């Protein structure tokens, strides 16, 4: 079956530090890959996505590249802010019409950014 | 547009009680999903629906039932609540058109925090 593994957390950084959150996956075919963000007390919001190998998703200064050879989709940001403090989820949606967009999530990584 | 809304936001139940969680979306999406979120486990799919009048089991369906009588609503029922069902429940929706969920992902509601004593 499909699975997503994220780096162990929580992650604590100072403002303006570089962020990397690792994500690797196991899936058949060509899944779409996503990063979702959950701010305290809220639901999940789509942060960025990639639908094929070597695609780079980007949004709000965050980036992630779909690496099929290493089955990875690591999230990066060059300079984090206090407002980036949240829980980040890596997820995949497998290919095929009968997948109906079902998502398989990683366990989530808590990010705390201090001033 | 309100997007995806969930009712109630919080609920405390005693073991054995029943309740229904309501999810509503105003985006005319065909697909709807119920997830539960537990610490260290991410989100896990309980049930989903690909259209009005259809439902299907996800990864963790035991102890839950669902109904989709109207396209915009997706109900999650707990017939006899157990402490293991203490969790945060999220509803989501997505469109099957124009690349659908593979292109645009899913849209999530704000969640319902349920405690079963």
Could you explain the architecture of this structure?
The complex is a heterodimer of chains A (115) and B (117). Chain A is an all-beta fold and 115 residues long. Chain A has strands at 3-6, 11-14, 19-21, 23-26, 32-38, 44-50, 56-59, 62-65, 75-77, 86-93, 103-105, 109-114. Chain A is globular. The mean pLDDT of chain A is 93. Chain B has 117 residues and is mainly beta. Chain B is built from one helix and eleven strands; from the N terminus they run E-E-E-E-E-E-E-E-E-H-E-E. Chain B has one helix spanning 100-104; strands at 4-7, 10-13, 19-25, 31-37, 43-49, 56-57, 65-67, 73-78, 87-94, 107-108, 112-116. In chain B, strands 2, 4, 5, 6, 9, 10 and 11 form a seven-stranded mixed sheet that branches. Chain B has a four-stranded antiparallel sheet with strand order 1-3-8-7, with no helix packed on it. In chain B, a hairpin with a 5-residue loop joins strand 4 (31-37) and strand 5 (43-49). The longest helix of chain B has 5 residues, at 100-104. The radius of gyration of chain B is 14 Å and the shape is globular. The model of chain B has no long low-confidence stretch (mean pLDDT 93). Chains A and B meet through strand 5 and strand 6 of A and strand 5, strand 9, helix 1 and strand 10 of B.
Features:
heterodimer; A: 115 residues; mainly beta; 6-stranded mixed β-sheet; 4-stranded antiparallel β-sheet; B: mainly beta; 7-stranded mixed β-sheet; 4% helix; globular
Largest interface: A-B, 23 and 28 residues
Classify the secondary structure makeup of chain B into a structural class.
Answer: mainly beta
* CA distance, first residue to last residue of chain A: 41 Å
How many strand elements of chain B?
Answer: 11
Order of helices and strands of chain B: EEEEEEEEEHEE
Low-pLDDT residue spans of chain A = none
In quaternary terms, these chains amount to heterodimer
Strand content of chain B: over 45%
The tally of beta strands of chain A, per DSSP, is 12
